[in-house]
Each structure stands twice: as structure tokens, then as C-alpha cells.
Amino acid sequence: MKHDTIVNQPVIEADRFVLRPLRRSDQGLIDHYASDRQLARMTVSIPHPLPPGATDAFISRALADDRIADVWAIDGVKDGAAELMGVISLDRVDDGKSEIGYWVAPPFWNTGVASEAVRTVIAANPLQSDTMFACVFQDNPASARVLTNAGFQYLGDAETFSVARNALVPTWTYSLKLD
After folding, report:
1. In this model, does residue 145 exceed pLDDT 80?
2. How confident is the model at residue 7, as a pLDDT?
3. Which long-range contacts (CB under 8 A, 24 or more apart) does 150-157 make?
4. Are 21 and 8 in contact (CB under 8 A)?
5. Please, are residues 105 and 82 in contact by the beta-carbon 8 Å criterion?
6. How do residues 45-88 score in pLDDT, each as one tens digit?
7. Helix/strand/coil percentages in the chain, nearest 5
8. Could you check whether the bond before residue 106 is cis, i.e. omega within 30 degrees of 0?
9. Distance CA 131, CA 99 (A)
């Protein structure tokens, strides 16, 4: 039996949910949601089909002392919603720089969960970043709106490899200067 590691990562309160460190018990819901082809295709790193052990490895990386990203579960239990509505992360990319990434489970698409989670992480700024970056696939305008509505500025076009698509995918890149 694997036990949860206690990570040095804050719990961040939002209006409708809390952002909390991942737990081993999140594996079933992450497996369920990340197995959705439409969700996986809008991410860089979720393979489709989701292979056995992928979620366990993801959670282990998120709980590691030497992790390069802080990962939070979007947990709606406090508001009577699901224990896991999605995931949001901040990757350390350089001194004072981080990259935000997120996915929301399909039952919660178009409910404002992504927007609230992104705004909450920006306000908390748990890594004390002076700049946050983000990129989204160009065929995912909903995620682009989440970023621009949160104050991110368009930097330019690029390409990034999508594991689920097994291809390079055109992206829009954004940044947000923080005080």
C-alpha cells in the first residue's frame, strides 16, 4: 500500500473549491477523466489511450520532494461538488518564472472552473513568480479565453508536441507580469 507524502505546497482557497496537493486517492478520478480522448487531445502530456501506471507515475512526480512542478487538485467538496474537477499546475521554468497548466474534467467544461482556478493561482502566486507563462493549442480557443480573461498577454505562435495526438500542434503562447 502506498501512502501519501506530505508535500510542502499550500492549500489555496477559491470561492467554489479548494486547490489542494494531489493525493494517492485521486488516482481513480484522474484515470477516469484523463482517459477521455477529447481531454487528452487538448493537453501536451496526457497519452491516449491512457496506459496503466501513467496516473500513478504522475501523482508520484507531484508528491516528490525534488519536483519541478506544484500540482493541485481542483477539489469541489466544500461546495458540494466533486472531489476532483480538474488539475492545475505551476512548473518552475527559471528564476522567478513559472508556467501554468490546467485541465478540467469534461463534466465541468463551460462552468467557469478553469477561469476561477487560473485566477486563484495568479492571486496566490505560491511560487512568488514575477512572470507566468502559458500556452494552449490553437484549436482550443476556450483555454485561450481563460488566459486572456485572467490578464495574460499574447506573445506569439509556436508548436508543441502532443503525446495524445502524436504530432506537433500549433500553439498560442502567453505571459503575465506579476507585481
Report:
1. yes
2. 72
3. 150/115, 150/118, 150/119, 150/122, 150/176, 151/122, 151/176, 152/176
4. no
5. yes
6. 999 999 999 999 999 999 999 999 999 999 999 999 999 999 99
7. 30, 30, 40
8. no
9. 9
| Residue pointed to by grid coordinates 500549433 | 170
- Taking the CA atoms of residue 81, residue 28, residue 67 and residue 70 in that order, the dihedral angle to the nearest 10 degrees is -10
Measure the CA–CA gap between 14 and 102, rounded to whole angstroms.
Answer: 15
Rounded to the nearest angstrom, the gap between the alpha carbon of residue 32 and the centroid of all alpha carbons in its chain is: 16
Question: Please, are residues 63 and 21 in contact by the beta-carbon 8 Å criterion?
Answer: yes
- Here the cell at position 152 is 495574460
For residues 130 and 97, what is the distance between their CA atoms, to the nearest angstrom?
6
Strand order of the β-sheet with 69-75 is 12-13, 18-21, 69-75, 86-94, 97-104, 131-137, 167-177, 153-162
CB atoms within 10 A of CB 56: 14
Q: Which residues does residue 98 pair with via DSSP β-bridges, in sequence order?
A: 92, 132
Give the type of residue at 73: A
Q: What is the mean pLDDT of the segment spanning 108-122?
A: 98
